[in-house]
Specification:
Transcription Regulator spoIIAA; binds S-adenosyl-L-homocysteine; Rossmann fold; 3 domains; single chain; globular; alpha/beta
């Protein structure tokens, strides 16, 4: 038998006395303040071995100068093997298969959700036969070619076709490239039987908000016969589901012209008329004015109002204002699907903000559902920061 190959470890990080508890409980981030000493020659993206104050190995990860200095990729004393990415990707695909995310009706899914899949710094989304890699760390950025080979191999081995792997740079478009193969955009995918056009080259994130899949399905189940307003619609995902389940009328709003053009195309692709079901390139706050008691169902899915703790207060005010406006103008007996994808606004804070909005609107409101992110966006039990999508379905009397 051949001896296992190991990854190249470029240095060592030693933790301060008493600062090893979280990593020993599988939390994947080592903060700069917890570090006693580090190999001087370390470069961003290097593999490091992490030791506790007694020099026992606690695990291995990617080094990067900054608040989060190490992103852990393995825990314990065993040296990581060279096929680590392949092994983790294979496991992640198995989870998506077992959780029944992938089916003959759904071929767009997140294969790797960073920490939730034991690969901090890495996102991989699969759009039918094309995979998109996004690196949020120097280590993953450096290893992109290896990751592309691994994703292509595990998908093919499992019987899925893989035509191309595209690297979408977080920094600049010029740094984005096809790592294997080539595919034309836009590309059509299926989600619960609905068709969507995906453009990973020009689109936001990797081209589609996969995290709303199950919430869109629930919306569809509640939209029959209703007059629906989908604000912050982007690709028109919620609009298509509403129409598919027999909504009477759907209006879609997004501040971006490109998003509205895409929504129109997605409506057409699924057989709906975008002139009847109007799509407006407009600011949501402006649109909500003077539309009192027009809609039975409103979707509020804004972008992350806060990306950092410093802007949390402003974000909360934004969510409160938006929700209060919608609560004031919805028809009696109306339903609101409201979301926050700001990681720094946690579930409780979001809930409290919605309570304030309700008080401001002065209406009787019940909570019908608490919503979150789907199984292909898993959260490590030891890394609660991984939960970012929160939603509520409200009934407004
Ligand atoms: N609901 C979508 C995802 C929303 S992403 C889905 O299911 O796929 C957030 C969207 O909000 C973006 O498309 C962005 O263009 C839009 N947006 C940002 N600020 C806005 C504003 N003030 N009014 C309307 N749309 C806005």
């Amino acid at each position: 038998m051949s001896r296992p190959n190991f990854v190249n470890i470029q240095g060592t990080i030693t933790l301060k006395q008493g600062r090893d508890h979280s990593v020993k409980r599988f939390h994947p981030w080592i903060f700069s303040g917890a570090i006693q000493s580090a190999t001087e020659t370390l470069q961003d993206g290097d593999w490091v071995e992490v030791l506790d104050a007694r020099k026992t190995v606690v695990g291995f990860g990617h080094y990067q100068k900054g608040t989060i200095t190490v992103r852990m990729l393995t825990f314990g004393t065993d040296k990581p093997q060279a096929d680590l990415y392949e092994t983790k990707l294979k496991k992640a695909l198995q989870v998506r298969t077992e959780a029944e995310v992938i089916s003959d009706q759904t071929n767009a899914y997140r294969l790797i959700h960073g920490e939730g899949d034991g690969l901090p710094g890495l996102i991989i989304d699969v759009y039918h036969d094309v995979a998109i890699i996004q690196a949020h760390s120097a280590g993953m950025q450096r290893d992109r070619a290896q990751l592309a080979a691994a994703v292509s191999k595990i998908l093919t081995d499992a019987g899925f076709r893989n035509r191309a792997v595209y690297f979408k740079s977080m920094q600049e478009k010029a740094a984005s490239e096809y790592l294997t193969g080539m595919a034309a955009v836009p590309h059509v995918v299926l989600e619960h039987g609905n068709k969507f056009l995906i453009d990973w080259e020009e689109g936001q994130k990797t081209g589609f908000f996969l995290d709303q899949r199950e919430n869109r399905k629930l919306l569809g189940e509640m939209a029959k016969g209703k007059t629906v307003l989908n604000t912050f619609c982007y690709t028109g995902g919620f609009s298509v589901y509403a129409l598919q389940s027999g909504a009477k009328l759907v209006h879609s709003v997004d501040a971006s012209e490109k998003a509205i053009a895409l929504t129109r195309k997605n409506l057409e692709l699924n057989g709906y008329d975008p002139t009847t079901h109007a799509c407006a390139a407009e600011d949501t706050f402006d649109f909500l004015k003077d539309k009192k008691e027009v809609y039975d169902l409103i979707i509020l899915d804004p972008p992350a109002f806060a990306k950092h703790k410093d802007s949390r207060h402003q974000a909360v005010k934004g969510y409160q204002r938006l929700n209060a406006e919608a609560m004031k103008m919805i028809k009696p007996g109306g339903i609101i699907f409201t979301f926050s994808c700001s990681q720094v606004v946690d579930r409780q804070l979001f809930y409290d903000t919605i309570v304030s909005a309700g008080i401001q609107a002065g209406r009787q409101i019940k909570v019908l559902h608490h919503l979150s992110q789907p199984a292909d966006h898993p959260v490590s039990l030891y890394h609660p920061e991984g939960e970012y999508l929160k939603g509520l379905v409200l009934y407004v009397e």
